[in-house]
Amino acid sequence: MPTFEQELESSAELLKCGKISKEQGRAHARSLAWFRAHAAQLAEAGWTVPELYRVGTLSFPYSEWGPGWLTLWNNEKCEPRLGARGSIEFVLHEAGGDVVQTCRLEKSFLS
Q1: 91 within 8 A of 79, measured Cβ to Cβ
Q2: What ranges do the domains of the chain cover?
Q3: Does the predicted model carry a pTM greater than 0.85?
Q4: How many C-beta atoms surround the C-beta of residue 36 within 10 A?
Q5: Burial group, residue 82, by CB count within 10 angstroms (0-12, 13-18, 19+)
Q6: Which is nearest to 73 in space by CA: 52, 56, 97?
Q7: What is the pLDDT of residues 2-45, one digit of tens each?
Q8: I need a surface site. Which of 39, 48, 68, 97 has the fewest CB within 10 A?
């Protein structure tokens, strides 16, 4: 079974699927570097590489796309961080304060 890190490296194959824009290709490169640096924490939080790099059934942004494709990665004023409960947060530093956009891992478990 491939490791989380090995799956991250193979995510580049998704760039060939025909649905990925140039902006998303840039986002992939930047998100991949961040995901590599935070691989242990992401895996511990329950993220999988297929969830991080989900390709939507419709063109971006009209269906469910993984956070690795978000063009927020391309914004120099935007800082990604790992939030509470394993969410991926993008902090956009604006003149009036910080704006936080959150990607949550939605999993339901019976207890």
Answers
A1: yes
A2: 4-103
A3: yes
A4: 13
A5: middle
A6: 52
A7: 799 999 999 999 999 999 999 999 999 999 999 999 999 999 99
A8: 97
The angle subtended at Cα 69 by Cα 93 and Cα 34, nearest 5°, is: 65
The per-residue pLDDT for range 86-110, each reduced to its tens digit, is 899 999 988 899 999 999 887 655 4
Q: Which two tokens stand for residue 13?
A: 């194959």
20: Cα separation from own chain's centroid: 14
What's residue 108's pLDDT? Answer: 53
How many Cα atoms occupy the beta-carbon half-sphere of 81 within 13 Å? Answer: 9
87-96 long-range contacts, Cβ below 8 Å, gap at least 24?
A: 88/47
